[in-house]
Each structure stands twice: as structure tokens, then as C-alpha cells.
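This follows on from our talk about sequence and fold. Please put the record directly below this note.
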Amino acid sequence: MNIEELHKITHDYLDYNPETGEFLWKASRGRRAKGARAGSVRSNGYAYIWVKGGYYRAHRLAWLYVHGRFPDLEIDHVNMNKTDNRIENLRLATHSQNGANTGKKRNNKSGYKGVHYSRIRKKWRAQIEKGGNKHHLGLFYTPEEAHNAYIKAAQELFGEFARAA
């Protein structure tokens, strides 16, 4: 199915509210009731909607619904909430920018994104990644100092996509 067909089918079967980010079914079909919320959230945290033979991420359908096309780039959720598909919360991003707008990793023990303790050096190390390349930002006596170095680098490298926490 091409993009024009998918765009038309999406408008035929679904109502999208850009202020809430919700998709609702326009008509009843099988167990699906008219006006019911479309889609479901999967284990990866994204909402998916079944449309004519395939599952699509709801944020990509929202972009298609509003702009009439899928983007060439990735779509980033500004507030990091993968189910908040309000059009004002969606923006185009490179893979690197999208990755910059994430929180700290689950296994983070320092409490700060981009900061970990070097047992060999007995100092806190700051590093940041862009385009698949890790950049060493220095060794510091406190995690706060390392975090400040990370924040500065993130703002320089990613601008509006920088997320320190």
C-alpha cells in the first residue's frame, strides 16, 4: 500500500485529535466500537494501530494524518512520553538527536546521565555519544562536576534535543 492510500484509509477509518493525540474509530466493526480508542501500547512503550493489513506506530500515523506523508527522519517525542502523540509533542529528528532526548539508562548508578565511576582512576567519568561515537569529556572528583561537563557538551552537540536527566 502506498502512502497516499494509507493516508486516505487512515482518514476514512480513524479520527485523530491533535490536541490530545488520540485516535478513535469512526465506525463499529467486529468487537471494535465506534468512538473507541484505536490501538494498544506494546512492551516497547509505543502505541500501535492496525490499519489495513499492518501495524503502525501511532506517532507515525499522527504525522501522516496531519502532514500527509511519513517523514524522512525519525519522529521524536519532545516530552519523552512514547504514548503522548499530540502533534505539538512530535518533532522531526535525526537518529542521533532522537537518542539525545532520552533519560539516563536503567543501570545508571551515579544518578546522572552520561556519568559513571572509574574504579581504576578513582574518579567520575563523563562521556557523551553522537553519531555512534563516544566522546570522553574528562575525569572529575564529584559526579556533579562530571554531570556539568555532560550538560555543557549535550547543549553544544544537540541544542534543543539535549536532555540532562
